Every structure is written in C-alpha cells, then in structure tokens.
Amino acid sequence: MKLFFQFCRFFVLLPLLLLVYGCDQKEILYEYKAKVPVFEKMSSIREMDVSVVSPKPLTTSGKIYLYKDYLFINEPNEGIHILDNKNPSNPISISFLEIPGNVDLAVNNGILYADSYVDLLTFDLNNPTQPNLLERLEDVFESQYVYHYLSGGNEKVVVVDYKDTIINSTSSNVYFPFSTSDKIYYANSSESTGNQNYGVGGSMARFTLANEHLYTVNNTSLHLFDVGNPRKPVFVKDIPLGWGIETIFPYKGNLFIGSTTGMHIYDISQPAEPNKLSVYTHFTACDPVVVNDDYAFVTLRSGNICGLANDVLEVIDIRDLTAPKLLKTFSMQNPHGLGLSEDVLYICEGDFGFKSFNVSDISTIDRNLLEHLKDMKSTDVIPGPKSLIVVGKGGVCQYDYSNKGKINLLSCISKTVM
Amino acid sequence: MRYNFMKFFLLCCGLIFSKFSYGQRLPYTSQYQVGILSYGPFFEDAGFTIESFHGVEFNNRLALGSTVGLDNYRIEGEARYWILPISAKLVTDLSLNPKTKLSLGIDGGYGFAGLNKEKIENQSKVSYEGGFMLQPFAGLKFKANKKNFWSVSIGYKRQNFTVIEEIQRTGDIDDEYRDKYTIAYTLQRLVIRTGWGF
Question: Which top-level group of life is the source organism from (chain B) (predicted)?
Fold first, then answer.
C-alpha cells in the first residue's frame, strides 16, 4: 500500500514537472560563407614600391582610359595595364604599373593621375612605358578609411582585400507553447557580398579632367584638385553631394554627376567653384550618364546594390540646365555603361549583350535598334577616335564602328582565369 | 555516439532473441499502445504516438525488449514532423492487487527522421535528422483475462531532432555561397498512452 501511495505521488508530480519542462529547447547554429575584409595601415602600403613591371595577363578589368595612342586598363586594386594602341587591331601590352588600391585614373598633358586607396598619385608619362612617380598627395580620399575595426578603434585602416571565410554564430532559445514571444523567423537572405569589378554604389572614386582641374567623386562627395601645374596637383576642396554618387561626365563646361537617385548638374565655368544648377531625380537605381548638346541619356539598372527599380533608358531634356525634364523612358534589359558617338548610342546590357541605337529622333529610340549582339556580354564602352572599346566579362575588345549598323571586331584582350 | 547506441540496441535485441533460442524458456511478452504527446497538460499543440513492444519476461516482475513506434510532433505550434523511434525498453511490474499491476520503466533509443520529406523550394533546401530518445514512464496494467491486460501510462519523452535549412544566396556571387541554419531541438513532451498486451 505504501508503494501505491508513492506511485500516486509520482503520478501527480510528473505532470507538474512537465508544466515546467514541457517545452522545446532550441540550439541554433548559423553558418555562412562570406567575404570578410582584410585591413591594412596606409603607412604600410606607402612603404610598398610603386613600380613598373613587364606586361602581365589581364585578370579583371576595371576602368579603361584612352590617351593618344595608349590604352590604359585598370586592374582593380592592383594597378594599370599600359598598351600601345596605335593599331587597334593589334594592341601591344607594354608594361604594368603596380599601384596598390588603384581603381581610377585620368591623364592630362602627359601626366597620369591615379588613386591609391586614400592617396592621389601623379606620374610623368613622357615615356609611357616607364611612368615616373612625381607626387603623392596623402589622405585626399579620406572616406576610404575605415575606423573602429582594429586597435580598439583608434587606428585608421583601409580594406585591401576580401577573403572567403566561414562564419558561425550560435544561439539558444526555448519554445513554450504558452508564449509566442520566443518564436524566431528566418528570412531568405538575398543580401549581396563581395567585390564588384564594375560596381556602382561602391565606394571608389571616379575621375575626370576639365578646365585645368581634376574632379573625382566618391559615393558622397566631389573632390577638386587644381592641376594648373599638371606635375603638381593641389587639393582644393570637397563638395558634399549626398549619398549614392557614382559617375562623373564633363560636357561643355558642365559636370553631369550620376547618383543612385538622380543626376546632379554643376556649372564649372569657374572651375574651383562648381555651381550647382539642378538635380534631376529618379527612382533608386544605378545610373551612368552621357550627354550631348540637348539631351542626357541615363541608364537605370536594377539589382541588389542598385535598388529594386526597373531597367530603363531615360532621355532627359537638358537644353535648360537649371530645369532638366524627362522626355522619354525606354525599357532595357540590364543596362550598364553607355557611350554616345554622334547620333548613335551604345548601351552595354550586361549578360544580355550589347546594343546600338540611332538616337537622331529621341522619341523613337526603341524602334531604331541598329544592332543587338546578344553574345557580347558588356559592362562599359568608350567610343574612341580609332575604335569602339568595350569592356566585357571576357576582357577588353575593340571594334571598328565606322559602319553604324554593324560593328566589326578588331581585337580582344582576354582575361586570364587565375 | 549514434553508432554506439545502435551497437547497444542490437546487443539488447541479440540478447533477447538469444533467450528465445534457448528453447523458449523465457515467456514472450508484447504490448501495443497509442497515445498523445503534449507540452505538459496542455493539448493544443499535441501530437500522437503509437508503439509496439516485444520482449521477454525474466520473471513476473521484469521484462526487457525492443520497441518500434511512430511519433508525430507539432513543433513550435507550426509544422508537424514524423519520428520513427526504435529503442530498448526495460519494464518492471509490481502487483498492487490480483488484477492490477504498477508498471515502471524506461525506454531509450534513436528516433529516425527519414519519414519527413526533404523540401527543396527555389533556392532553399530543408532536411531533417533524428536523434536520441529517452522515455521514463509509469503506468497501470489491468488484467483483462488469463493472458491479456489493458494498460495506461504516463511518461516524459525527450527526443532530439534537427532541422537543417540551407539557403542559396542570389546575386553577383558564385554558387558556393550558402547560409546554413541548423536548428537542434530537444523536444520534451508529456506522453499519455493506453494499450493492450499479453
């Protein structure tokens, strides 16, 4: 009988225990592969040699630049390939200028300006095969610095690389059916990470030269340098522009600055004092811009970085620079860079190929497609004096575009898979 | 660990069936039960359980055998999952009166999750893994006739179960990039069962 009472007590106690323990214990392990930044102090980078080495294969292509008969191809964060382009059918690689942290360049009167993380470097190009470093302006692109990562947050460092890393995090949680506050929901992450070779919305500055000044943009500011003495650039000032600044295009005494939310127009008749004329706004997207006397052509691209917009070409009336007006919008597939040569507009459609349009009548651009090369995956284009230079996933190719309706391949510098 | 348990389980089974091979000197016993799995005495998110036990009686008070069952869990008030538990079970019976026995026991094994179909949708894949199971219980057996009995029992069931979700990220990055969530549950339930045996 005594045993029976013990059993009854057990029967009563067990449900009571389960009132406390009737639950689901959860141990959550979250693992993901990510590219994490590798930091370096600028003092260490400055100690590295900026040197000219023999030509090497192209592995990734960044910005391209034409100067006289020379073609410069940036290898992001590595340096600049210099090619003799007298004959676009047979460009000859002559040297590679090693510049850590370089993503942009411009050339003025035989002087090459190139960035190196936060510094601006000036090279003498009298002998383009052996550029000679003349000047280093330190800390002029301060926004490249990142803080609060190393040495208790006091050290200023730059991101020099990204490496693949498996990151783990764990958490624990208890679910009681009587409370919903502990429920955890997971969203499909479509967050993008990693390096972009031609990414807009990145933090890298873009360069252009006009009126004896070098104008560069990063994603928030316009930086001005007086290059009246080309061999000795002088930093003038920064002009804040707002977030999402991407591209800069000079045209007849004006700067057209593309941002993710619109196009800024600045009068640079007084080069050291750019005067804001207007801002044309559009939905959030990546937007390179080219212009002629009357119109600005802006491609808007959707994507993870660019925003959830449509892919379109916008034609904007800029005859009155203080009041730009949207005239027409045309659907595109995934437009990246674009170039304008007389009345032909070239548009790089990313994985969707390369298109050319006759834009003599801006109201019927969509009906005036000259060519659509679907296999020619492209991201940027320069209509040069001798050839049309197209940057694509496979490398940098040049085309004869004397026949507007049909471009002909002259040569290709292919990327080497590393 | 899982393999160690399986070795132990197979050893138990081997022992039981080796006893059978000794000319049936030990009587065979069997029990079939159905019941519910709930979060304590609240049945809103209850699942159900069925189980069959096959073993031998060492004397009138102790039985050892193996069980196979099927459990259905509702987890976090949302999805339902299936577990196929296979375990070793030790039961001791104490007579309370000529028609009633108090039954105390413990059941330990591995719950397999193979009945849950892997889900592949868009860029995500969800798969499941089972885990160890432990189940102490107490109950009563009521004599129905000379050989058969009815039973009721109450117990605590602890079952490990893992949900693995892998998400392929979209964007301008290569296909290797995956997010992986491993949610390891320790499910703790009140088990109330009724059954029949001999």
Answer: Bacteria
